[in-house]
Design a protein that fits this description.
The protein is an alpha/beta fold. It folds into four domains: 159 residues, 3-Layer(aba) Sandwich (Molybdenum Cofactor Biosythetic Enzyme, Chain A); 57 residues, Molybdopterin biosynthesis moea protein, domain 2 (Alpha-Beta Complex); 88 residues, Beta Complex (Molybdopterin biosynthesis moeA protein, domain 3), CATH 2.170.190; 75 residues, MoeA, C-terminal, domain IV (Beta-clip). It contains eight helices and 28 strands. The chain has a six-stranded mixed beta sheet, sandwiched between helices. A hairpin with a 4-residue loop joins β20 and β21. α1 packs parallel to α6 and α3 packs parallel to α6. Bound molecules: ligand LQZAQKY5 and molybdate ion. GO terms for molecular function: metal ion binding; molybdopterin molybdotransferase activity. This is Molybdopterin molybdenumtransferase. It is an enzyme of class 2 (transferase).
């Protein structure tokens, strides 16, 4: 059998980023820059006030103090957005608002708190240094300077600097459009009645959500029947527009009933592999069609789908999007041991809590069966158990791949702790609270 690492490395070698496109900033969130971006302007664009107050020439009020305030005529107001070319006239000042352009010839702003606030003739009660409360042009970014490097993923703060600099469109990789296809004659979309022997499709909605949560575009394109010809035709259609295709089901040893495997064996560079992992053993991957679209054929069991996505598809999607990616695992102490199959890397569903030392403690959720979707929904993460380990001992340390944002796991643990504290104090004895 192929190891997890071998399979992952082999498929990542064949994944190239999707084409570069130019998109307006409104569509750039989450995409990766393919070129350095330089700022066409200084930031701040012009010298402006950092405070509500009075714009002055500092040398003219050098003697002002609380004991001997200085009376200065006010020439008018300058609000943020004021485009008039205001200038300083000796012996006077301007009332100015935060963000408003500092008039030519003024070199500082006295805060309103250090004055009597009069709009016509102000009593200034403090001297200021030249430059005080003025945000100089180009202090943050110089025109022509690189503000973001190629390879940067555009998040909220990167959007902010691009918008501030007036960069209205950017060259990026992607977006990555993913077609999700469930297979199996037993499947019925949720919302429709199931007949005898049928089940609702849960892999389709889960995969589409996983793709979207990873920051890509997903179309749940429907169901493939247990018919190899129909499967081939449908997948050929998606090869024309999708940047990545994920199917679930129909890849084990059921012969013609495993229609995905039957249809795609020998197509493009498709290879069907048994990977030494549990769950997720039957894997298929290859590039199909003129556009060499990466196609993942995942096994049908819901937990196998989830694990296969986390281990193989998530890194591949990142590579397709031009992103760097490395999984983050959390160390945890095993609260209650379990066994693991010999020679297979196990991904065991666990729920996390805190032990007395404050470390994460991992306890198994439901059994190891890869059909147990109810237990899957209770899991905080997957404990990764190396292939050579057959007994995961209570008290040993494991690495856990989180399945939920760590901030949400933390918030639940904190709430459980608070419930626990309350129980101890009021003696109600409700145990560990809602979780
Ligand atoms: N003789 C053998 N049988 C099986 C083997 C084996 O090595 N020898 N491997 C087992 C393992 S491991 C897995 S995993 C599954 C993989 O099977 P398939 O990929 O062919 O998947 P299906 O048979 O189509 O479905 C498996 C299971 O999952 C349910 N399913 C499928 N699609 C969905 C969906 N979209 N939503 C919810 N549930 C779904 C399906 O009804 C089956 O119960 O093969 C084992 N068999
Ligand atoms: O390896 Mo299967 O993928 O147990 O569920």
């Amino acid at each position: 059998m192929t190891t997890v690492t071998e399979h992952l490395e082999a498929l990542l070698e064949r994944i190239v980023p999707v084409d570069t496109v130019t998109v307006p900033l409104s569509e750039a969130h989450g995409l990766v820059l393919t070129q350095d971006v330089t700022s066409p302007v200084d930031l701040p664009r012009f010298a402006n006030s950092a405070m509500d107050g009075y714009a002055v020439l500092s040398s003219e009020i050098a003697e002002a103090s609380p004991e001997s305030p200085q009376l200065v005529p006010v020439r008018g107001d300058i609000a943020a957005g004021d485009g008039q070319p205001h200038t300083h006239r000796p012996g006077t000042c301007w009332r100015i608002l935060t963000g408003a352009p500092v008039p030519e010839g003024c070199d500082a702003v006295v805060r309103v708190e250090d004055t009597d606030g009069n709009p016509h003739e102000v009593l200034i009660k403090a001297a200021v240094e030249a430059g005080a409360n003025v945000r100089p042009a180009g202090e943050d970014v110089r025109a022509g300077a690189v503000i973001l490097r190629a390879g940067t993923r555009i998040g909220p703060t990167q959007l902010a600097v691009l918008a501030a600099a007036g960069v209205a469109q950017v060259s990026v990789t992607g977006p990555v459009r993913v077609a999700v296809l469930s297979s199996g004659d037993e499947l019925v979309p949720v919302g429709e009645p199931v007949g005898p022997g049928q089940i609702h499709d849960s892999n389709g909605p889960m995969l589409a959500a996983l793709v979207r949560a990873a920051g890509h575009f997903a179309v749940h394109a429907g169901h493939l029947p247990d018919d190899a010809k129909a499967v081939s035709k449908e997948i050929e259609h998606h090869q024309d527009y999708a940047d990545l295709v994920i199917t679930t089901g129909g890849v084990s040893k059921g012969g013609s009933y495993d229609a995905v495997k039957a249809a795609l064996t020998g197509a493009g560079s498709m290879e069907f592999t048994e990977v030494s992992m549990q769950p997720g053993k039957p894997q298929g991957f290859g590039l199909l069609g003129k556009r060499e679209v990466p196609v993942f054929t995942l096994p049908g069991n819901p937990v196998s789908v989830l694990v296969s996505f986390e281990v193989f598809v998530r890194p591949a999607l990142a590579a397709r999007a031009g992103m760097r990616y490395s999984p983050v695992t959390m160390p945890a102490v095993v609260a209650q041991g379990w066994s693991s199959p010999e020679g297979r890397q196990q991904y065991h569903r666990v729920r996390l809590s805190r032990d007395v030392s404050g470390s994460y403690a991992a306890e198994p959720v439901s059994g190891p069966g890869s059909h147990l979707v109810g237990g899957l929904a209770q899991a905080d993460g997957l404990a990764v158990i190396p292939a050579e380990v057959t007994e995961v001992a209570t008290g040993s340390q494991v690495l856990v791949l989180p399945l939920r944002p760590v901030a949400e796991i933390e918030a639940d643990l904190q709430a459980a702790r608070q419930d626990g504290d309350g129980d101890a104090a009021d003696g109600a004895g409700r145990g560990q609270g809602a979780r």
